[in-house]
Amino acid sequence: MNLAVLILLGLSAMSVVGLSLLMGYAGQVSLGQASFYAIGAYTAGLLALHGVPTVVGLLAAPIVSALTAVLVGVPTLRLRGPQLAFATLALQLILLSVLGDADWAGGAIGLQGLPYLSVGGFELDQDFEYALLVLAGVVLVSVIARNLVRSRVGRGLRALATGEMAAAASGVPVGAYRLMVFGVSAAFAGLAGGIYAFYLGYLAPGSFPVLLSIEYVVMAVVGGIGSIGGALAGAALITVLVRLLTTLATQPGMPSYAPSVLSYAVYALLLIAIVLFVPDGIVPTLRRRSSWLASRRLWPPFRSPSRSSSAPRSTLRPSPPQPSPPQPSAPQPSAPQPSAPQPSRAQPSVARQLSPRGGSAASSSPAPPAPAAPSSPTTPERSPTAPPGSPTSPGTGTAP
Amino acid sequence: MGDLVQYLVTGVGIGCAYALTGSGLVVIYRVTRVVNFAQGSFAVLSALTVTTLLAAGLPHGLAEAIAVLLGGGVGALTGLVAIGKPGTTPQSALIVTLGLGVLAYAIEILLWGDQPRSFGGLSGSVTIFGARIQTHYLLIIGVTAVVLAGAAALFARTDLGRALTATAADPYAARVVGIDVLRMGLLAFAVGGALGGLAGVLVTPVQQVSFDSDVALVVNGFSAAILGNLTRPALTLAGGLLLGVVQALVGGYLSTAYQTEVALLFMLAVLIARAGRRDVVEAA
Questions:
Q1: What is the ipTM of this complex?
Q2: For chain B, which terminal residue's Cβ has fewer other Cβ atoms within 10 angstroms, N or C?
Q3: Are the beta carbons of A272 and B81 separated by less than 8 Å?
Q4: Does the CB of B16 have a partner CB in chain A at under 8 Å?
């Protein structure tokens, strides 16, 4: 496992977060996510070759991708389900065909000799620096995606995903929101593409096959559609798995076609198995299971309100997950009596008032969505440590 | 004049393959509401099987027939995976068929390698209106006409066809009158697989086939089928022929580089023009 793999993993993760958002919240299957990756990469590459500072190219990559998506999305997002899948696939085939024939894009050979990314005279020419850049990109993308999901727009999108007509009737601007998610998901892929262009130094239409789009779909579905943690976990799992199999398949004695056969087989079998047997994806399923375990071990009377949807949303901002001792105790007096003594704190701590478990509920419920897969299995371990504090806190709360 | 006729005939020939692939999609979609993404794989699998069977010394005709039957069998298996598990939604089934298409890549590369392959078709050529035309194109057109007419008769005239149509119209009512809906779905997948296999077997002598040819085939087949809203076989045939002819004309008079774009833009235009209409929303 070297840095190059990690960088490619991170780039995939950025694209997959966007795709997962699109599939999970706008209910659209896109088989053309790699085309926005390609557009971002070519934007950055072409600008760099024409003497534009590389940072500008990197910033332009997501913008151009998003604009293209919006332009393309106006007509195509009226399509549903399989139609959109084929339309996005068609768009990618068109893009590949155009890029392959275009002299300005280097044709089938592509763009070569791209400079390294340089920020204010500092040139990123080490794998390690790109790894950090990609990490920053993944964090940025995840934060944007999470904020989008938890905003008013996100609630509208969730309504949209459950029932389009009902959402429209409730005043959700269906078309505009859908277009926005499409644009945002394209911007994520475009940013990843921009980094890819500077990291690798050359681009060709062959680097963005249809199969890459399918790979993104596999990652999103395996991890869990609509879950940011799932997107990251899916990208990580598939990349690592394919990497391991490639290493295995390039051992001496293996036939030359072994790597492609094995990776295709893994994509296919994982995709089919997950869709049929774990339809929600790995991360949401694990999370549900862990919260189910946690709820069994916790004090029964207090478990249902804590998992109401309002809990993670408002408690997300105080990011340190471990509740400091004064924090749970401060809102505790307000838990039994809604008339909080501190009106200034009342608004942000709504969820803590709702959940008598206090800070423990707040820390355990937003934890799973945050980072990648490893966090969700830790949830059941963290939750049992919480109740010792929580049963006592209502006691102290009711005493005064 | 000679050029034009030649483009028209080759276009119709290739269009027949699109129409067959599209008809397979339509048969499957009507009965199961699943858009079968693996439809192109049936064609590729069957075509590659023919190359092996011919190399093994089987005569023409028999090899093709076996390959088409194999396509049907693979279609039924695809259906079993895609809709066999109760509660699988059409959207999940679409993704499952996508996975099966990728699985087909693995199998094809394993068995046949990743280089394009072909086999000889009907040799010789005839001259029509001053245009020399490979006889094989006429074979493609003839076989497609017979098979699609046969399929239409199957759906309209036989009990089995009526059962399929009933399932397509209303699965619940079909179940009430004693039709096994799942079996009908699998049967539809088998018919779709055989149609797809036939498309591959027919077109390979004039167009090489490699493991990833299925994307172009399924996209073109879908383009043809979407003209008929994925439910009307006659419009699918018309769409396939139109697509083939337009591609041949563009390739002949402008540049072969634009062929793909034309087909895809045609599909997008039809899709978008249809999207505003009520029936599409319900169908999707």
A1: 0.82
A2: N
A3: yes
A4: no
